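Thread: Modeling a multi-component assembly for a lab meeting

Hi all, long-time lurker, first post. My supervisor asked me to bring a structural picture of a complex we are working on to next week's group meeting, and I have zero experience with this. I have the sequence lines for every component (812 residues in total). Could someone generate the structure of the whole assembly? Inputs are pasted exactly as I received them:
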Amino acid sequence: MSNSPVQTAVDGPLRSLRVLELGHFIAAPFCTRLLADQGADVIKVEPPGGDPARDWGRKVNGHSVMWSMHNRNKRCVTLDLKDEAERPKVEALIRWADVLVENFRPGQLERWNLGVDALHAWNPRLIVARISGYGQDGPYRDRASFGAVGEAFGGVRYLTGYPQGVTDLPPVRTGVSLGDDVAALYAAMGVLAAVHERDVLGTGKGRVIDVALYEGVFSLLEGALPEYASCDVVRRPAGSAMPTSVPSDTYKATDGWLVIAGNSDAIYRRLCGIIGRPDMAADARLATNAGRLAHRAEVDAAIAAWVATMPAAEAERILNDQAVPATRAFTVADCVADPHYQARGMVVDVDDPLIGPTRHAGVVPRFDESGPTGRIAWPGPAVGQHNDEIFTEILAGRPAPRKANP
Amino acid sequence: MSNSPVQTAVDGPLRSLRVLELGHFIAAPFCTRLLADQGADVIKVEPPGGDPARDWGRKVNGHSVMWSMHNRNKRCVTLDLKDEAERPKVEALIRWADVLVENFRPGQLERWNLGVDALHAWNPRLIVARISGYGQDGPYRDRASFGAVGEAFGGVRYLTGYPQGVTDLPPVRTGVSLGDDVAALYAAMGVLAAVHERDVLGTGKGRVIDVALYEGVFSLLEGALPEYASCDVVRRPAGSAMPTSVPSDTYKATDGWLVIAGNSDAIYRRLCGIIGRPDMAADARLATNAGRLAHRAEVDAAIAAWVATMPAAEAERILNDQAVPATRAFTVADCVADPHYQARGMVVDVDDPLIGPTRHAGVVPRFDESGPTGRIAWPGPAVGQHNDEIFTEILAGRPAPRKANP
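Re: Modeling a multi-component assembly
Sure thing. I ran the full set together rather than chain by chain. Output:
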């Protein structure tokens, strides 16, 4: 399936960056996974019972399959952060790290006497990324939150539905943990910006980064806020269609959905030829996007009539052959079967000691081969798998270098 | 509305990082906006007629309102990259830059004799981030693409719908340019990882980063790929509900949608008390998530019956008062009116010379005040606004430092 099987050494542009994760569930672990994939040395701290995410999703041999990918390339240790007797280990880890990433409720680290001042007393160079639902201050900082709530409070969930009157169904999830994932990406970017300031500009100081789930998704709303402020327009749900461009929508083929993005004048004219409607290519009313917006129903009906006559894969092939952007809505099975995924190394065979042979998504983004590139060195470890290796070294003041996956 | 009005100096942890954008539409411009927000000095190159995105969305005084936010904190110059006579300007900009971010179709830079080898001959330290629909290689690299196609090919669009049989409506857009935005975040992270390698590890070499829209969204699919590989399970659309947790869904109040994430045993029991169903809190069948998954319809019906009796804001208040994560699905108008957004500086007054007073989303993520923080220094510039300032300085071999917004 792939020419990139599991390797025995972590490498990549972030080799040498030391990251400590005090995280659970999705956001902080995904942030550190992104850094680990690019070569950072990540130590993940779990309570003795393990991160609750070890129970998520399907299992094989009693182990979560998602875990294999979600926590790959990390080393896992267990530690009871409430237990004062464990403090020497905590201190050693904090002194070891360049970066700490955490996603407890605001105030939780402080209740364990691990607030930013305490951390910086041990290690003033420590960069601290704090991910939470509502952020570290503001009136709602103490509110419980989850990704779904962050997405809805941040303004995205309102938009994942149909215009009023089309259906009584609620707006949908995006099918992924969008709020957590976007926060994780922002945290990874913020961490590396702070590394730049500390090590390239040479301030030597560890900054604190405050990532709120809702603010990540809110920042993706593009023109919605300035258009509300300047034009008094509230962005409304638009279903499957692009509200500002025609044609760009999802159409029903005989066996599934086809997405067509025909949103330029030239693409539109090619599309009209393909669907046997040269009259629409010549129609002056429809020559520009503004005209097509005014006649959306007419344009979409003509496209829908053509798509409805054939399987989605056939329409996809015909359209792409004439440079009209189009694709089936891929299932994960379609992704695995697709030659482009295979050629790009996006589906990687992994032999996981906990669950056996499985597959992971490749490392994103891809770096060129002029230097070390990130890779899948090992899958998500067992609970406490690296306790001996790490605590022995770190408590002795040694750097605890990574070995091949034990 | 905010205590963070427009400032007259760009600052932040990335001050001193020089970024050249050869971009258009969403992905590359959003990537460089993220870097500019954190203090990077971004020069955006447009063709003489301007980036086509200047025509997107609502306008005031003939200027796009979205542009104000989408290209803030940058300096804008015009340059015809096809024109050999302009080559000295191009070369001066490449020599000036630390980083280049581009999102042309693969092969386009090469057709202009601006392939990576040519760029590195001028500036071997240049980091090059290339964003495209399908990536720089593989069988589909030459296919036309747009965000909607990347999202569908990457496996997310299939999931933004309802299970088969619930509705004939197609899966929805997420309401934002998800594929472009996620690619932009990955590119920003990749750029800063390459800066780390070049300047902290000291390789001195500019790496090339290949970001494909579809790979960004594919990487968010969590357990979907390993679960397909290990358990032969294809992830299917699940509508508004979290497929692995009960209760976590969207419910209809008298005036709009309410999202409740009651997905822990303790939260579930508190929720049962609030909705007047202590019997459900005591029901052994429903004590664990596994049990609630098996009786999802029963649990959801009881919650829905309670939510249906009152306005969403009232249910939101009652639930949050008892630490049950819940929120209305916020419109952008709700965001602007909310005290938490105001306290966090997420809605910022901006006086834009092109469109007048407007508002922008704040800088994400937030840095602490122990050093310079990113801010909104000026809104998206006019076409060619900084031509004289930049070309005069750069062609003379001077660094063209940023001034206050002219």
